[in-house]
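LAB NOTEBOOK - FOLDING QUEUE
OPERATOR: T.R.
BATCH SIZE: 2
PURPOSE: Compare the predicted structure-token outputs for two unrelated chains run back to back under identical settings.
PRIORITY: normal
REVIEWER: second-year student, initials M.K.

ITEM 1
FIELD SEQUENCE / FIELD STRUCTURE:
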Amino acid sequence: MSHDAMTICDPQQHIQLWNDSAEKLYGWTKQEAIGRIYHELLQTRSYEEDPDSMFRLLREDQWEGELLQTRRDGELVVIKSRQSIIKDIKNYPDHILIANQDITAEKCTEQQLQDQVSLTTSVQNIGFWSWNILNDHSTLGYQILAALNHLPGGDPTRSQQAAQTLQSVDQARTQQALQHALKTGHDYIDEYVFTDKNKHKHWIEIQGRVYLDEQRKPIKMMGIAIDVTRQRQKERKLHASNHHLHTILESLRDAFFLLDKHWRITYVNQQAAKLIHLSAEDLIGQNIWERVPQLKGTIFEEKAYEAVQSKKSLHFEAFFPPTRHWYDVHLHPTSEGLSVNYNDVTAYKRTEIALKASEHKFKALIDANIIGFTLAEMDGKIIEANDKLLDILAYTHEDLAAGKLNWRTITPSEYKHLDDQAVKDLLNTGVFMPFEKEYYNKHGQRVPVLLAGTIVEHSRPLSAAIIVDLTPQKELEKQKETFMSIVGHELRTPLTAINGSIQLAQRRIQRFLQERPEKLPSDVEVMISKLCKLLEQSLRQTRVQNRLINDMLDVSRLAIDKLELTLQPSNLTSIVEETVEDLRYTEGNHPIYLVLPEQRHLPVLIDCDRISQVVANYISNALKYSDPEVPVTVEVTVDDAEARVWVHDHGKGLTKDEQKHIWDRYYRANDQKCTGVNLGLGLHICQILIQRHKGKVGVISKKNKGSSFWFSLPLVPTGI
């Protein structure tokens, strides 16, 4: 304190005490200073533009800051001033104690540094930075803050606040660097992150120097703050780009490595190291021909030298004997040397060889003309056809060349939906499964065929199909069905006679029992009762046999398209009612319920006998697969367009797989509770009959939950 210029003023700032240091500093003697107003004598103003200094002095009884004052000779000095209020015994302000210290030299150095910074801010984002160690007070220069879009102009308060927002990039490193600078006096260099008012981050490099007081103690650090954001962003982008490139190269299925002009490996990805069976550490910096001597004297060495000398990229496939593998290789000359990427294509080459062998076999099959083969477009144009297909359709190669073969135009209209489904399957899955249809040959005759195919070119698209002539098989089937029809007729003739004889025997026994007045002996009655049961069993068996023969005949007629329908306007409700009543009589005690709609008249155009046959078959199946005590329900429903007949049972139900095949010819569901003989023809016949009536059939079933079979028929206007 003895070196400070000491002044005591009254509350009106009249000077009452003026020590020697003040006289020496300002040039005014005690006699000249005493009684003068302090701030007028020294023309005092705030060095840091602090208008609230007096207010804070009165409020807090003390103030500390930097002032700009004028000496007697007119020279300006920068003063570090500490001012305190002295109060009387009643705690009223009595005097002001002022202790001033000349810091002009220090401020000149700081100003010179700021001036240097100002000269460079036009080309670089550089500003002044200072840190007062004594009060831990930091500031950032206006220049750099303005450059960072933080301040529109000089604002000391915000400059101080901005300095406080600096965050060290590495806190531990910052503390170590500060301590080192304070202890040794060496320059301080560190990096901070600054967030501007727009929430944008900036990287600031701080370069500072330590300043000491008269006792050689550090009191301040000053220096420059440089905006290195662009540099750091470029470094980060470059790092990210390198990382991204490294990630891409490491994720490639291809092996990749770089060679310099001396054939040294400068980079190798993991796939390349894996194929060479060496680690990346073992390869980097090594001469490729020395580190992998198996490549010497091979096509790989030959092509590498050719690519470097010609400065042209090369692509080739080669077999490498040491590994017995095929490789697909790309060589690209660069300014630094050569980039190489290659891939193991052994599996592909083996597949290619196998495919060529398969193509050879397939071509041999096509050329053998065992089956028909075609390449065709989706619009129907046939591009290629082998001799077998041309023979099936009775066309010539000249007709094919003239564009006369179109699979759409030679297909009967009833198969259009099958063709459309095949095209849809081709586009969705690339193949269409085998199905049967017919073609018109050149003479207009129908030719039954079986065909299947696959798509071979997606851009057009183009499909390949194999076609099998089913004419011999269809002829054989017709002969078989004709034979079955003849056999059925021959079987039914004696069966009719047997059935008649049994019924005649039953009537004669009944007449005998009715005409004898006296009671028969008990043993005779027992014998006659057993005889009646045997006759009834025989009669039932003849009915079963007759039904089986009728099914066989119906299937035969359907197969050779000889089943004729006699269509006439009818009431479907009446047909169902009559059929149910007949079955209630023949089936005995098995309950059959009937549920009819409010609209009793359901006009349909049908063959009454055939629809009754379908209803009877549905009900008979339900009875066979149900417990005798559990009822079977027959239901008729109707909407605006169609009537539907349902038969519900409570049997074991059908699995999903069984439901797919239940309408197939000769298919029988596996159910141990089923009684009687079943050829698996009934439901197949029902389906064909309903389809001939332009109706539909279906089943809804769950295993162990029963089944509901249905068929629908279109309604017709009344009067038809």
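ITEM 2
FIELD SEQUENCE / FIELD STRUCTURE:
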Amino acid sequence: MRLTLLALAALSVVPSLQAQAPAAAQPLSPPPIAFPANLPVLPAAQQAKMDADLLEIDIPHLQALYAKHKYTVEQVTRWYMGRIARYNTIYRAVQTVDTAGALATAKALDASKPDVTKPLWGVPIVIKANTAVKGLIDSDGWQGFALPGHQFIADKDATVVARLRAAGAVILGITNMPDFAASDTNRSTAFGRTGNAYDVRFSPGGSSGGTVTAVTGNFALLGTGTDTANSIRMPAGTSAVVGVLPTRGLTSIAGIAPLDWLLDNTGPIARNVTDAAIALDVMSGEKSPADPLDFRTTGEGRTTGADTAQLGPFLPYLKKDALKGKRFGVPAFILSGNTGFGVSQPARPTNGMQPETRAMLMKAIDQFRAAGAEVILDDTLLPDTFALNIRKITTTAYRLDGTNGWLAAFGPAEYRSAAAYEKALGSPLPSTLTGAPNPNAPTTTPQRPPTPQVALKADPNAETNYFAPQRAALAEYTAALDRLHLDGLIYPSAQMPPPDETMPQNGTLSSGPHSNTGWVNRIGVPAVVVPAGFYDSGLPFGLEISARPWRDGDLLGWAYAYEQTTKLRRPPVLVETGLLPNAR
């Protein structure tokens, strides 16, 4: 959920991991959350026998097995726990396993009959660590929320978690993420580093890297991600899974730790579009997305165009010929090497699209055309001036407002505000959450001038700072689609392949596979990433598709048609030892 466009200096809150790059072989200091131990796994022979049925299974096929009484929900739940027990010591995707809660849910489901009114009945899932799950430590990746005696343990579920639970899902546990979701890679002071399932030495991207590694590695059937600037989509691309960023307001962010609550969003991560569509139905509340705890889901707070929204169910949009006759373009500012700061520069390792990524994009364009779509390359389609206008949408003055709203509704009794946290623990929350300067930042870390913090609803400048520039940028986006008669856009989910984190990246500690797709969050339009092949290294390439606001059904239909036409996903081959799980 990296805020590239906001130029956060707040990564300095974890200097032990980021101030300098020690030798790759030097072990990390133990994080406060211990690796899940003593999981109730199945006997080895039974686990191996079930592999043939459950590896890469999707929701419809799993529920067909339940209907035939081939497996119980408890058996399937324990099979996934067996995968976690076997591989999580290397990949560190899952931070917490709710053994008692997951087995209790499984046994309760087994005591009833499969319920066709619950679309996720018996489906084991994982939840990202910034999303409240009642009774579990939701660390937001940060050691400060995992301190013994002061853990962030919510007394209720986030809205999307409550909806998933009500739909019959079995919540296995919590996935790892970088501190506050403020990174393009997946290092956490609460639980350590997550590796890419296709090669653990490489980055899975951030900040939903724990979920994508868990889902692509078959530690769970699907999971949740969050996204402020790329954090569902870029990691999905690194790991050959489907990641959905809905139109802002289709899903509620209530109960999700804010990185920037005016840009934050949440959506599903799955191994195929069908599962993602089913999960999005549930997370959005289908025909009733409104949540009084998230003003962007209700009334005037919704993204422009909500009165004609495609609210689901989404499965009817999934048609193999959905791309036929459709017309797409590639944004000019992405092709030109724009980093998102409004300045085009020649492509090089530190910015712009790398040559191997451009080559993969061109293959994907050919695949779109083969599926019946037209794809145009036009220098006037969202040029660099669009990136400059995107920057006019400013949200930094409202960061503390978002943090206090989240803590007031979902925080532990000990601290229901940023001020209460400082009083209880004797130190302030990091600047990432409050917008205040970071007194603990290394002297080598440049500090942004502090932005006075105000409440959005009370700010007379909110229209000038946020609402009006957002409407103008969204209008520019839709006008460009109208002018060129486009249905949507396509482009890489990251401007580079995943980096090897055992090696320096451009001479410094690896900061992940960078992306310049945060403009999507700024205007609130939907986007989806689908597996689109593999680099020569064997690491995945992801293609991102964006659409007009509230055309989420059409978007999923295009992704499904591309997926079914190409069938480019292949599962990773996981290892149990030997590939530097603590690589830095």
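REVIEWER COMMENT (ITEM 2): The longest strand covers residues 527-534.
FOLLOW-UP: none requested
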